[in-house]
Every structure is written in structure tokens, then in C-alpha cells.
Amino acid sequence: MPDTLPAVSDLESSMLTIIQTFHQYSGQKSNLKKADLKELINNEMNNFIKIKENDTLDKLFADLDQNGDLEIDFKEFIALIAMVTSACNELFVPKV
Amino acid sequence: MPDTLPAVSDLESSMLTIIQTFHQYSGQKSNLKKADLKELINNEMNNFIKIKENDTLDKLFADLDQNGDLEIDFKEFIALIAMVTSACNELFVPKV
Fold first, then answer.
1. How far apart, in whole angstroms, are the C-alpha atoms of residue B38 and residue B43?
2. Are B40 and B32 in contact, with CB atoms under 8 Å apart?
3. Across the interface, which of A17, A23, A92 has its CB nearest the CB of B14?
4. What pLDDT is recorded for position B36?
5. Interface touch B45/A9, C-beta < 8 Å
6. Residues of A in contact with B15 (CB under 8 A)
7. Which of B8, B14, B30 shows the shortest C-beta gap to A14?
8. Residue B87: how many CB atoms within 10 A of its CB?
9. What is the pTM of this model?
10. Mind giving me the DSSP string for B5-68?
11. Consecutive 10-residue averages of pLDDT for chain A (96 residues)
């Protein structure tokens, strides 16, 4: 194995997947418009979040868009990932 | 393929890996003590964070431990993941 490729842990690989997924949907502009966010959630997070109504998408988008520029940048996106992962953690690990 | 196993996307699988890694190091107490955090970072994030001195670990732990209970709960841990993933994103995607 060439030593130019460091061994990446599963956790590091997961962090890279989050970055890759964001850029797959944001394209070169590096921001998600509302339609990009909807497509990303419906294609990549549909076991964890269901968006059935536009009202739900509008509310989520407004909550995430902290600086109000009508686009979701990477920091705003990672806040969504943190929120959904925390919710999953609470589902999978019931409080004692 | 049995229809009881839904197809999980790479992004969803990444979120599950974050949860699994946390619990691997927290054990049943579901909180990371300082030594657990050090071990997790050194074993699972060492391509992304290097902690060489105890001072650095102390400062990071204090920054993450928002409620000051001397333990890192899952929400405090996911804030670390968000911070490090955002930093990686900026390294890999230079601003134009």
C-alpha cells in the first residue's frame, strides 16, 4: 500500500462523506438553495427525515438559514446534521 | 434482500458511525470523561486533530463541556464533530 495514503478511520471517513454529500448537491456555488436542500434530504436522509409538505421545508430552511441569505452554507448544513444525529442518538439510546 | 432492512444512504451511514463511535468510547454511561475523549481523538481523529500537550486537551475539553459537568455528552460531542468537519471543509474547498 503506498504510504501517501494515510489510514482514515471510520469516523474520519464519515466526516468526509458529509462534506462530499454537501458539495454533490451544492455544486460549485458551495451553497444549497431550497430546492437543493429538498433534493438532498429526500435522496440522502429519507430514513431519518420525511418532508411531505412545502410548509415543513420552508420552516426548516428558515431555521437553518441563520444569516438569512436564502442559501444554506456548510456551517448551516452541519448544524442540520448535528441536530438530526442527536435526535437519532436519543431514539437509539433510550434514557434510563 | 429482506424488506425489513431499508437501504441506508452513505450520509445516513455516516451519522450512525458518529453515534456508534461515541458509544464505543463512552460505554454505558453515555458520557465521555477527559481520558475517553483523548483516546477517541487519538485513535479515531488523528488525521484531523493532533493533541500533543495536556494543555490543549484541557482547553478543548473545557470548550466542549458547555454545562460544566466535567463530562462530554452526545450533544457536546457532535459540536466537536461539526467544528472539525467545518474546518476540514474549508481546507478542502479553498475560498475563491
1. 8
2. yes
3. A17
4. 97
5. yes
6. 14, 48, 81, 84-85, 88
7. B14
8. 13
9. 0.90
10. SPPPPHHHHHHHHHHHHHHHHHGGG-SB-HHHHHHHHHHHSTTT----SHHHHHHHHHHH-TT-
11. 75 97 94 96 94 89 95 97 96 68
CA atoms within 13 A of residue B83's CA, in its CB half-sphere: 11
Report how far apart, in Å, the C-alpha atoms of A18 and of each of B1, B23, B27 are: 27, 20, 25
Domains of chain B by residue range: 32-90
Residue closest to A26 by CA, chosen among A93, A67, A73: A73
Residue in the structure block whose three cell numbers are 478542502: B92
Joined grid coordinates for residue B75: 450533544
Hey, what's the cell of B95? Answer: 475560498
